[in-house]
Each structure stands twice: as C-alpha cells, then as structure tokens.
Description:
The longest helix is centred in the C-terminal third of the chain and has 28 residues, at 289-316. The chain has two domains: 3-157, HUPs (Rossmann fold); 189-316, Riboflavin kinase-like (Elongation Factor Tu (Ef-tu), domain 3). Strand 7 and strand 8 (163-164) form a beta hairpin. It is built from ten helices and 14 strands. 34% of the residues lie in helices and 27% in strands. With 317 residues, it is an alpha/beta fold.
Amino acid sequence: MLVYDPTASTLPPGIPTHAVVTLGNFDGVHRGHASLVQNAARMAHDLGGAPVLALAFDPHPRTLLGKTLPAPLTTLAGRLDLLRAAGATQVGVLRTSLSLLAWDAETFFQSVMVQSLQARGVVEGDNFCFGRNRQGTIHTLKDFCGHSGISLGVVQAVEAAGQEVSSTRIRQALAEGAVDQACQWLGRPYRLSGVVVPGARRGRVLGFPTANLQPLTVVPAPGVYACRARLADGSVLQAATHIGPAPTFGEELPRVEAHLLDFQGDLYGQTIALEFLARLRDPQTFPSVEALVRQLGMDVRVAQDVCDFHTQRDNLR
C-alpha cells in the first residue's frame, strides 16, 4: 500500500508525478466516486496518456478533530482496490495529520499539487473542500489551477433512482435493509467485510453451521439475506446470512452469521466479505427448534435461487 504524507520532505517511490490527480475520502467508492476516476482517465488521455492517481484520505480528517464517525462502507484496502477497478492507474493513501489539517488552502494546493505531485490535472466533485476549516472550495481550486497551468475537471453529482448518490444515503439504505437500493447507488452489491470469530456453535448442531463475523464495515438492518461470500483464498460461495439476535434461544446480542453453502472447513481468524444480493425476511422468534430448522431450510433454498439468478444475470453482461 502506497502512503503519501504531504508533510514529509520526500515523495515515496511509486507515487507518480505529472499525473491527473483526484483526492477524497471515497467511502464506499460509489458511482459518484467512480465518475471522478473515469473523468480523470478521460482527462489523462486528452493530456497524452498521463497516469491517473487516486489518493484516499486516511485517517478521516474528522477523526483527528475528535469527532465520532459511523462504521465505514469499505475497508481502506477495499477502497483502494475499487478505485483501481474504476480506472486509476495508481492508488494510495494520503496520510492526514493535525499538521496537515492546519495548512490553509493555498499551502495545501502549492505543497501537494504543485511542488510534490507536480500534477498536470485535477478532477474533483463540485462540493470538494480543502485546507484549514475546509476554507478552499471548488471555486478556490479553479483559481489556483488556472494560475498554475493545471487542468481542472469538475464533476457534477451523480444521480440514481432519482436521488443524488452519497455515502450517507447508502448507509441509510443499509440501515433500513434496502440492500437493492444500496446496490443501485454503489453500482454493485454492498460488501460487508469481517473477521470470522468463534460463535455459540449452535448452527452446527442444527445442521446449518455458520461463519460468525466480527464486522469491519457497516452492518445492514437485522434480517435474513441472500449473499455471496468471498473467502480469503479467492473462492466465492453462496450464503444465507442472518443478522440480529437469536430470540428463539433467548439471546439479545446481535450477530452476523453466514451459512456458506457446500463448504466445510475452518475459517477462524480469516477476513471474508459478504455481498448482499437480497433481503429475504425479517427476524423471527420461533415456537420450537424444529420450526426454526424448517425455516432455515427454506431460507437456504431461496438464497440459493437468488444467488443462481444473480450469477446467470452477471454472465449475460
């Protein structure tokens, strides 16, 4: 992972100069973020084949100011992978610090874009802000780029399903269990990353062993979902995932439990990702263990049908 600290005296190897640059938090790397990278790629082509450099702020500037943030939509590594998939030729982290946040807008621009990166172009959204107290706006950036001979691309907000795409809206959709809506705004199924940890091992006794996740990203609303599970070795499995407590057994603490179809093995300690394809039902309290097992069997069959449908649709694209 390439890490660029603007307050350091040298540019780390691997960070290209004379690139078209886009900066941001890029939480979720949704369709709006992808549009930034795609516009940067078009500008780079027009400039004779310049590289496209996408840098994600980390840590989030607001955390350095003592503010509490919600869980992220993507891990940092996931953000970089998605930025590369969107078309960036090089991706990395722009390391934030209190020293960096103290720079005014002009110092930030001159130090980062002009002196350090020697950018040929910059592409940002129309709500981009930079510098101390977010004093620099897209209009400020336009003036600075004009005086420095740097090309500037300003990208308007992307709309989908009649609304402006934003990380906040995606997070709200997930909080409501609307994973199909989140998918429209992301441009792909939402992916929850988590580390597999020991659970109560009750699923194994019931005939539906589960991988119990300690989440690293946003957890959708309680319910049962059809998912695709991506394992650390690259394999992809169908899954029926339960999120929430286990009221049938008197447990109130919420869990993320994924039953991986046609899988046997030990995943403890591994990081896996669940892609949410559809919400199947609300959580339920069952009158007996037998009733729960019958419902689990139905959930698995429906989840398999949903996964098969998505696989067939993806193969036609």
